[in-house]
Amino acid sequence: MAQETFAYNIAEKVLMKLGSLAFQEACLVCGVESDLERLANTLSNIKAVLLDAEEKQVHNQQLTVWLGKLKEVFYDAQDVVDEFECEVLQKQVVETHWSITKKVRRFFSLSNSLVFQTKMAHKIKGIRVRLDDVAADRIKFHYLSERLENVHVVRGKEMSHSFARASDVIGRDQDKENIVQRLMHASSDSQNVSVIAVVGIGGLGKTALAKLVYNDARVVDHFELNCWVCVSESNEFALKQLLVKIISSISGENCNDLDEEQLQMRLRNNLDGRKFLLVLDDVWNEDRTKWMELRGLLMGGANGSKILVTTRSHRVASMMGGTESPYNLEGLPHKECLSLFVQWAFDEGTERQPRKPGGDWR
User: Fold this and answer.
1) Which of 39, 69, 236, 347 is most buried (CB neighbours < 10 A)?
2) Signal peptide span per the entry (predicted)?
């Protein structure tokens, strides 16, 4: 049982590091952004069922073996992440402290050459392929296969809402300001309604950032209508379901009994000639046809209306963003990560002091 608990903990640690600024920068240099995104998505999906697998593996030897394979891949992934971080730190030390002669000498060393980048790119791609292969073996375990395939439905239970406390969000002040300015200024898009997509891997705080923006007093005053819709549980991007949610967010009406044509008419009546902000949080579906169908119904808003989208998928961001460039959310710097950890590790009102090496509180 401990083995599977370890697997879950390792998956969590790797996901946290994948979202770090240092690791993302290193992956950009090595040209493995797409592998990083796919690796993070697969890790997130598998992590969602690990604890369930832990309970069921007691009477299933095949499941125990499967979890052991996952553990091995997780450990290798953690090693690669650590190696990346170590390389970034070494470069920072070189830039800050080393003499020009030593810098030149190190430039030709293995760890700072294209050889290192190629080696790391090969490693992360290899881990991604291995993880995909192990994940595919879930077909042997019917109950796990169902849970993994319906992971977005499970995530729907954690449906987001628009309320946020600014004190709960750390290190995103500049990101918030950047997005607020983009919402309030004219778009290069010739249409009345333009789209801004915030994209980044899971765990970076896209939803929390969108909440801060949505509740900013300047944004509230700038738009005549403000509505928030969580899309994650609507994995198929079902138009009728989204229309019901949008109308409910605007007017509070319960429109579940209306057919799709009636919903479209109701939405047009609500939006016609009014400047609105619509947040579509956690979009996964990459079907351009479905998105264009919804977007066509939203074009009746007044000039300057905006749609703010949060997503993990660069394809979704590009598809929905139109002429607007996506806003790429990066990981937090080390200082802010530490502050976030302290905030979550201690209850409010608890004295937040680091431990001495001996274990006592300072």
Assistant:
1) 39
2) none
Q: What pairs with residue 229 in β-bridges?
A: 280
User: Based on the domain organization, do 170 and 124 belong to the same domain?
Assistant: no
Determine, yes or no, domain membership for 319: yes
Co-location of 145 and 230 in the same domain:
no
Dist CA 349 CA 43 (whole Å)? 34
The pair of three-digit structure tokens given for residue 295, joined into one six-digit string: 């977007």
Q: Does 195 lie in the same domain as 337?
A: yes
* 110, 111, 157 from 234: Cα distances, Å: 48, 45, 11
Residue 143 confidence (pLDDT):
47
Are 158 and 210 contacting, i.e. CB atoms less than 8 angstroms apart? Answer: no
How high is the mean pLDDT of the chain?
A: 72
Closest CA to 136 of 98, 217, 144: 144
The pairs formed by 356-359 with CB atoms below 8 angstroms and a separation of 24 or more are none
Residue-level pLDDT at 102: 55
φ, ψ (nearest 5 deg) of residue 199: -125, 140
Query: Are 74 and 21 part of one and the same domain?
Result: yes
Is 348 inside any structural domain? no
pLDDT digits (tens, 9 = 90+) for 142-178: 545 444 444 443 343 344 554 444 445 555 778 889 9
Q: What are phi and psi of 225, to 5 degrees?
A: -125, 140
Question: For the whole prediction, is pTM greater than 0.70?
Answer: no
> Is residue 206 in a domain?
yes
Residue type, 287: D
Which pLDDT score, from 0 to 100, does residue 351 have?
Answer: 46
110 and 243 assigned to the same domain: no
User: Rounded to whole angstroms, how far apart are CA atoms 291 and 239?
Assistant: 9
- Looking at the fold, whether 233 and 337 belong to one and the same domain comes out as yes
How many domains does one find in the chain?
2
- Domain hosting 48: range is 2-149
Our CA dihedral for 298, 299, 301, 302, rounded to 10 degrees, sits at 160
Residue 24 has pLDDT above 70, yes or no: no
Residue of higher predicted confidence among 35 and 350:
35
CATH code, domain with 217: 3.40.50.300
Q: Which amino acid is at 279?
A: V
Residue 154 lies in a domain: no
| CB 47, CB 12: distance < 8 Å | yes
